[in-house]
Amino acid sequence: ELPVLLFRPQDRPIIPLKVVSKDGSKTLFLTSLDIDDQTGDGLGRFQFQGKSEAGMPGTQILDGETLTVDTRAPSARLTLSPPSPLRPGLASVTLVPSEPLQSPPSLSFVPQGGQPTVIPLASAPGDNGMTRFVGEIPIASSLPDGLAFWRFSGIDLAGNPGTTIEPDRFMIDSHPPKPVTLVKTVSRQHGAIELFWAPPIYTAQETPETILGYRVFRSNQVFSSVEKATLLETVPGISFSDRNVPSDGIWYYAVAPIDQAG
Q1: pLDDT at 35
Q2: What letter would DSSP give residue 191?
Q3: Which residues of the chain have pLDDT under 70?
Q4: CA 250 → CA 139, 193, 239, 245, 247, distances in Å?
Q5: Which of helix, strand or coil describes residue 190?
Q6: What are phi and psi of 147, to 5 degrees?
Q7: Is the peptide bond before 3 cis (omega within 30 degrees of 0)?
C-alpha cells in the first residue's frame, strides 16, 4: 500500500502529493512538489501516513519534515545623508535589503544624460540581525541638475534575483539659483530701511529653481562676498524691513535666494 504524503504550506490549503514506488520498492518512494501560487512563501511542513507490512500505522518524519519556500525577489530600501537634493561633495548611502543576500549587492546611479556611477558598498551590522550596506556617493559640480536614478541588483539565499529599490531616484542640485532682480531700498522713519526685490528671472530655455527663501545680508562696505557680512534674516517673501541699523552712514545690502539644496 502506498503511503500518503501531504504538504501543508504556510497559511495555505494542504496540497496532496502523488507518491509512486521506485522500481517496485516497498521502502523507497518518489514524489514531486510544484512551487507556485498554491505553495506561497514561508515555512511549510510535510505530513506522512503509512503502514508497515505488519499493518502498524506510522506518521513520524525523521528528516526533512519542513521546507522553506522563497519565490519572492529581494528588494532594498535606501537612505541618503544628507537627504536629497544633493549638492557637490560626498553623501553617505545606507542600503537595507528586504532579506539576507548571498553576497553584497551592486548599486549605481545614473544622472540625467550621464553614465552609471558604481557605488562601492561595505557590509555593516543592522537592526534585527539584518546586514545593511553602506557607501559614499560622489556628486561632482559638473553633473547636471535634475533627477538621478538608482540601479540595484541583489540575489537572495534561494537564488532569486531582485532589482527593486525604494526610493528609485533622487535630486541633484549642483548649481546655485540665479540672483534676484530689481533690488530696491527705501528709508523709513527712525532709521529703518525697507528692502524690496523680485525673484530670479529664467529664460524659456532654462529650468527654474524652486526658491525656498531669501537670505538678507548687511555690510558697512561694498560686498565682495557675503562671508564678512552680517546675516540679518532668512525670509520667505520678497521684502524685508531692517529696523536695527547700527548707526548713521552708508550701509550695503545683499539678497541671496536659497534653493532646495540650501
Answers
A1: 87
A2: G
A3: none
A4: 41, 12, 20, 10, 9
A5: helix
A6: -75, 145
A7: no
